[in-house]
Amino acid sequence: MVALAILRVEKLKSFGNIGGSEKHTARLQDTPNADTTKKNIRLIGMEDDSPLEVLVKNKIAKTTLHKPRKDAVLCSDIFLSASPEYFRPDDPSLAGEWDNPRMLDFVKASRSWLVNNYGDKCVRAELHLDEATPHIHAYVVPINEKTKQLSHKEMFGGNGRAASIKLSKLQDSYAAALAPLGIERGVKGSKATHTKVKEYYQAVNSEPLTAVWSNKKLAPQPLESATNYVARIQNDHQFHAINHQLADRAFMQERLESAEQRARASEKERQRLEEIVRSLELKTQQLRDLDLEDVAWELGLHHEEGKWKGHGHIINIDGPKFYDFAPDQQKGSGGAIDLVMHVNQCNFRQAVVWLDERFESAGVERAAIAHVKNRAADIIQTEPRPQFAPPVEDKANWSAIEHYLTQKRGIPSDCIQMLHNQGLVYADQQQNAVFVMRNLDGQRNGAFLRGTRGENNSFKGYSKGTKRSDSWFYFHLGGKANDKTSTAILCKSPIDAISRAMLEYLIRGDVPPERTVYMAIDDFKSLPLERLRDINNIVVAFGNDKSSDAAAQRVLELIPQSQIKKSQAHDWNQQLLDYGRQLRQQHQQQQEQDDELSL
């Protein structure tokens, strides 16, 4: 069977709920279905061993602006696991056992997913290895970044369809994180409710004696009383192992049956949507333009020798088009409204009223739609395409741009010169640094401008006419020019992209060994998704602030194989400046030491 990703979310609405949940996950109380010989592992929150209630209170106090509402969800318990087929592929029924490399891969992928999605909102995560199947309990404080208030609804959805959609997207995201391990997403679009965490444990712990009897491995001894038998098997480790095994199998069987039900419901929903699509297609066909010959007949024209004649007109009709061959007319066009306007010598509004009298409102609507389409088609075919005009280069201002980028932005001069020689950076007449934006075939479709004149110039923006959906500032380093790009590093601005590349160059001492593209993406709407999906290694390096975090998460949703890399400073340019300052300090200290030795 295929291994499936498992994700559940449970609300903890009071600190009493939080304390009770911690007693279970931290094993502060007796847990009958837990194997005491196996040790659980804390994955997140190792540095602070305070009670979970204290961690949540501190997080709320430091992050929120208002006191939580009485009905607010204080903490969300996220349950993460995979079906037994992943952990023990040779025999999924062996509860309490697992393939260790597989388990470690699952833990690494799950922990990375928690950190990337929730950051420091995830105050603790526990890996449980002492039960039937390895799983993780993660505690997330659901704080809305915009309102600075607790909002489980905003993070995970409330009730009804909105909650279902958000939870479905969350499960998509988690399944994508586990996909490299061969773990798949469960049936999507289910109308069934998800099993809660506590219901899972009810299933695992249900009917222990029945499980033993059905297995028949711990049969009563001859002449043994029922009281002694129960006491004996409850103290036997085999009893717990068998109970876990059978309960886990029963639980997964129930989940399989539920998945099959959801699949049947999804198929019915698909058939219903297909019927709607067929209906819309039929309706679209009915919205075609009126037959021009019917309109010509209503206009009082008569058909003679293949032409429609009358009122001084000799009109040939060819499908949706017509042409008037009369000596003083010599005009062609298309559509019912145009024909009425031409023959009756009236304006658009008068033609619509005329059609309404003859063909009623449905006919008028069809004619109006055709009229608009015809006008749009004529414009598209005849109007010249606007071409981007790059800002005029002013070579006299280049020295000021170079000084700004090297001295104030800390970018090495040889890098700036390289980009300038490639025509990717230059100066305009207003002393703006012009970062040339190209489509992925190299055509210039735009430019990003950064003001440099004056001491505190903060101007930045796009040159007029820039096609933001099909042009980016980007450059390649490493490998050969005709090599396939192996790595894409996405930054939020041209200067950040250059800074990130220079940090890697200064630390590594050389260009990357494989072909790497550094690209400025200021909005997830402009992502070249089709091209990026062909690149195996994608790094989302948008900086280290809240807006950057939100944008990076959106990219991660669109390109699941990407990974987020935060800068240590506010952005990569500030980190480059800090790194350059450290190098200068080290050089100065070394120089002072050399001077002392020379004395």
From TrEMBL:
<feature type="domain" description="DUF3991">
    <location>
        <begin position="403"/>
        <end position="480"/>
    </location>
</feature>
<dbReference type="InterPro" id="IPR001668">
    <property type="entry name" value="Mob_Pre"/>
</dbReference>
<feature type="coiled-coil region">
    <location>
        <begin position="242"/>
        <end position="293"/>
    </location>
</feature>
<dbReference type="InterPro" id="IPR025054">
    <property type="entry name" value="DUF3991"/>
</dbReference>
<keyword id="KW-0175">Coiled coil</keyword>
<protein>
    <submittedName>
        <fullName>Plasmid recombination protein</fullName>
    </submittedName>
</protein>
<comment type="similarity">
    <text>Belongs to the plasmid mobilization pre family.</text>
</comment>
<dbReference type="Pfam" id="PF01076">
    <property type="entry name" value="Mob_Pre"/>
</dbReference>
<dbReference type="Pfam" id="PF13154">
    <property type="entry name" value="DUF3991"/>
</dbReference>
